[in-house]
Amino acid sequence: MAEPSSPNSTASDPKRVPPDGAGAVVSGKPVRLIVWGVLSIAFLGYLAFGTVGARIWRFGQLQIESRSIASTWRVQGRNLPDVSHQWLIESVFYGAIGVFVVCTIVGMRLLLAESTDDRARVGNDHS
């Protein structure tokens, strides 16, 4: 008969973590990290090689063409308003694109992150 406080008994204490990191695979942390990595690479690949429909007026007619996202950003960066400190407005434009990309990747990570608090377990604990 095993005592409830024995080192190998995890059934009596639901908050006890199995030794040697065996609970890490069960909790899904590596799976979430892999999913985040794949999503981040796919997002960066889409930004580098993906296309969007561009509506362009030529000779008084609207034409819809498929343009890459990177080339669209380059065209928009070249067509910024002319001001006395052009480097400043270009820096803000490309900085905003960088912030958008970084925040999207960090946001995906936070969406896939596991909650570290025990509020979900406390609400389900009826003992």
- The helix-and-strand class reads alpha+beta
- Low-confidence runs of at least 5 consecutive residues: 21-26
What is the CA-CA span between the terminal residues? 23 Å
Largest pleated sheet: 2 strands, antiparallel
Radius of gyration: 26 Å
User: In percent, how much strand structure appears in the residues?
Assistant: 5-15%
What is the share of helical residues? Answer: 55-70%
Number of strands: 2
Which descriptors apply to this entry?
127 residues, alpha+beta, 13% strand, 2 strands, two-stranded antiparallel ribbon, 5 helices
Task: Write structural notes for this entry.
- The structure is a single chain.
- The protein is α+β, with helices and mostly antiparallel strands and 127 residues long.
- Among the domains are: 32 residues; 35 residues.
- The protein is built from five helices and two strands.
- The protein has a two-stranded antiparallel sheet with strand order 1-2.
- The chain is flat.
- About 5% of the residues have low confidence.
Short description:
With 127 residues, the chain is an alpha+beta fold. The protein has helices at residues 22-27, 29-49, 69-78, 86-112, 119-124, and strands at residues 51-58, 61-68. A two-stranded antiparallel sheet has the order 1-2.
List the topology elements:
Blueprint (H helix, E strand, L loop, with lengths): L21 H6 L1 H21 L1 E8 L2 E8 H10 L7 H27 L6 H6 L3
Antiparallel strand pairs: 1-2
